[in-house]
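note to self: the first set is below, dont mix up w the second
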Amino acid sequence: MDQKPSEKEQVVSNEAYPTGVASEKYLQEGESFKEDDKSEEVITHGGDTALANAPWKYKMIALVTALLFPFGSHFSASALSAMKKQITSNLAISNTQYGIISASVSIINTIFPIAGGMFIDMFGSVWGTLAINFMIILGSLLTALAAKFESYALMVVARVVFGIGSGLIVTMQESLLSKWFRTRHLSIAIGLQLSISRLSSFLGTLVANSVAVAANDWVWAFWLSFILCCFSIAMNLIYALVVKHLKGQVVLTEKEKEALKKKKTFKWRSIFKFPLIFWHIILVEFIYAAVWSSFQTIATDLIIKHFGAEDRLAGYKASASQAVPIVATPILGFIMDFYGQRVVILLISSIFLILSSGLLGWTYVDAVVGMVFYSISLAFGPIAMITSIGMILPSEYIGTGLGIYKSSNNVGTAILDVAIGVVQDKTAGQSYVNVMLVFIILAGFGFVLICALWWNQFYFYGNLLEMKRSKRVVRMQEINDKELELTSKGKDPYSETPVRKLSYPIVGLFVAALITAWVLFFVYSIHGK
């Protein structure tokens, strides 16, 4: 936590929501920055910070097209989880080895999202998203081929390739949306993004086994995933062409080109200037994202083993774990946009995760109840954390911040995927009782951290994360204006902020966790047990 109460004013004056594509035009010193309601011109002077003031016509284009970027990748990931029983039986592998397949997606994304976030902050993300979606298609194709030829080794390679794309595309999507909607309606935009993501995951869990049965071939679940990944890159191409056309209307002066050139030099030390509350949120994310993601990989098999359901029925019931976010996240976006209460919403998420783990691990109440409770947790948690990061980091570092956020997600998931596979293999009858106990312990610890987060943001940040719309909009506009003053002169938003010494051990612990994830992955990949 931050140690000095006086930092509150520094946060208020220096940090803000995220903003748009970094390769846009810079504001010349002394130039005004306003949206002309009568003009169709895209006013993007001021770099990332300026897209928040772009006309709504272009914001809607960015929103609608960007929402479909990762549709295929989310479907593919959930379809793989729903097919755990078929994968372990057809590939003749253990639960630990299945954990390696699942962790293959996470392990590669312990590093790539950070690099991808930095890329976005420095160069923008228009054509980068196309390259990343190509990796998703390639990984999805290799997954289907691995299933067809029943090759465990190829399956691991396929998921690593797939993981490179699936992790980066989400980071790019969240960063892009955050940059467009920084001052207004950020929570709504992220809510819609999470809703579409959960819808695709819901469909993957729901139909994977049914497609396999209907086609009389379990591999067809993966061929369908491949087809939907092709659809996503088609949507991505439309977005890229539209944005390229809009950007083509802007002609940079020599002075603006020089400012852009300065911008494309990432300052590593700035990571150590990030506010300590950012790292607090990352710790909560590290724990909860690991539980959420690992739970999804076992949901269908848990219902089969613990409740004795047949494959297709288990898939239908497990899909309930994805249902609530489809409807709830846009509503939560509106609630947070108007009333704030981000940390309170995160606390509600924590409570439902604990209840879900208890119901599914030790009772025989219909599995749908526990899955819906889990689904509520999944709806409430991520949107609260993502939008909070957008409020506390400077816009020029939002891509990097979301990259670290996504990386922490995957570090935790990679560790826990392997760990729960080992725990299940060592449990009598390979039941999930001990696995659910691990989930409850982690969720309980996270609950304590969230309570501390509320106190942190209230005492050091003037209750910024809980603030209602009327006060927050004024405050964030002031932050945006001060940020524009720096970026318009080619300065870094953190140029006047000192390094926070406590950040060094925090980053050190993050790196240690990353190394642990890689060690576990390779040890169990090689030995399998």
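second set (the one i keep forgetting abt)
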Amino acid sequence: MWMNEMDQKTKLEAEAEFRRKRLEEMKKMVKQDGSESSNSENDEVADETVASEEEEDTESTAKENTETKSLVFRNYMPVSENLKTVVREPAKPEDVIEELRDDIEQATNDDNSGEIDLNSLAPRKIDWDLKRDLQLKLDKLERRTQKAIVKIISERLKAGNNDLLLSAVNSNAEAVVDSHMSDDD
């Protein structure tokens, strides 16, 4: 049976109907609680009929709606006298100057302001992360370069060219100095 009803109605309609039923039940419970409390206070009050309850319900909701709604004119002043009576007074901002003064004094009196490390706040160069990542690779290449230079020098020593060896060592020393100078730039 439930599946047949679901087939006929959409899911949203079924949910709306369920909510409507729940609200009606809640209204009945509130009215019963209200009538029980009034019966306990005044035994002479008789139970009302369903028709009169519905009329009072519609009247009370209409009154509540008019009472809770009030117009707010933010951008203009109303011309009509009826509207002028409904206008709310504009809200006045609270005075926060004293609170701000206290906050400023507290911030200036903090001892932490002198302990900040300026090096940690200084901006880094744009390519600092690239240099960091490439430094390991460059260190490997530097070791390989040094091994290759040692190998070349040892081969020349074995060949017996001492004059060439002296010039190779000097050129190697100059190359190392030049490479260190270019790294510092």
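remember for set 2: Helices lie at 2-8, 11-41, 50-68, 81-86, 97-109, 118-121, 128-159, 162-184.
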